[in-house]
Amino acid sequence: MKEWYDAIQEAQSVERLEEIRISVFGKKGVLAAEFVKMKKAPNEEKATIAKELNTHKANLMSEFTVRKIVLQTQELQKAMQAEAIDVSLFSTSSQAGALHPVMETMDRIVEYFSSMNFAVKTGQIVEDDFNNFEALNLPKYHPARDMQDTFYFKDEMLLRTHTSPVQIRTMMNTKPPIRMIAPGAVFRRDYDLTHTPMFHQIEGLVVDEAGKVSFANLKFILEDFLKYMFGDVKVRFRPSFFPFTEPSAEVDISCVFCEGEGCRVCSKTGWLEVLGCGIVDPNVFEAVKYKDVSGYAFGLGVERFAMLIHHIGDLRSLFEGDIKLLEQFQ
Ligand code: DAH
């Protein structure tokens, strides 16, 4: 038996130990053979032999178990050492981060208006009814106030549905003249191919003494801005309606996909609507207690600009965080 104790101690791998286990404890193993031999021994010796064999069996088993744990631990340590990662080594490849296309577009728009001397205002995302609707000449029955569109909290608080309330906040705490833009997130209860519950807008407002701000000023700056953003496009102003401006216009650029030929994106019209604008409605000035002033305002959706600039087809892809999409904008 001694040789098997030695064999267990000398085994250098779990694999070798397993061979020993089969040779000692297996059906055709040493112990089994010894028990068979015992049956042939004289009766008076059987009890002693059996006792001896059982002691060996127990001792060998415990040696075996201990040795197995030792070998397994050694093998695990070796494997861990072989697979260890040296975190202090320099990496051969690195991934540079980049601005999200929406933020990059927002930055470009802000850059343009900053260069034209517009101040940047932020306002707040949780708004009240007065700033988001009432002061903007959005009467109580206006469809934009419908629960369908607005996320409401209690006590007439809500998530702003546009960045126009920043106009009101700015006029409420500054004297004219004003020359500002307000970039930021806005929220509406909408979700489909062209609408997400959160998106970004930029609002613009210019106010000065009565007679000093005209539609011609508005037209000039927006045309110049759109050419800065989209290059050599045609720009047209279409009469429209907004409660906070009178007269109001929607502004189109010639389609950046088909260059005005007519395609799927522009619904065969050759034009893409990109912003809303107008001359500030007297009711708005009344709400903020401004007298003898004139002004213009405009508002645009940043995601729409980003999609047109980068030829992105589905608005929702801007919010999925897909690294493959984002990698294209480094
Ligand atoms: N607030 C409007 C919206 O969310 C956008 C807008 C249109 C703002 C015309 C303006 C404007 O200041 O004059 O749809």
Quick structural summary:
The protein has helices at residues 2-10, 14-25, 30-39, 43-83, 101-115, 129-132, 165-173, 215-230, 282-287, 302-310, 323-327; strands at 119-120, 126-128, 157-159, 178-187, 198-209, 235-242, 245-254, 271-280, 293-301.
CATH class of the largest domain: Alpha Beta
Hetero groups in this structure are: 3,4-dihydroxyphenylalanine
Structural class: alpha+beta
Radius of gyration: 40 Å
Sheet with the most strands: spatial strand order: 1-4-5-9-8-7-6
Poorly predicted runs are none
Residue-averaged pLDDT: 93
Major sheet characteristics? 7 strands, mixed
Domain module tally = 2
Global morphology = rod-shaped
Total of DSSP H or I helical runs spanning 4+ residues: 11
Helix content: 40-55%
Percent of residues in β-strands: 15-25%
SSE ordering: HHHHHEEHEHEEHEEEHEHH
The CATH topology of the largest domain comes to BirA Bifunctional Protein, domain 2
| Strand segment count | 9
Q: N- to C-terminal separation? A: 73 Å
CATH structural architecture of the largest domain = 2-Layer Sandwich
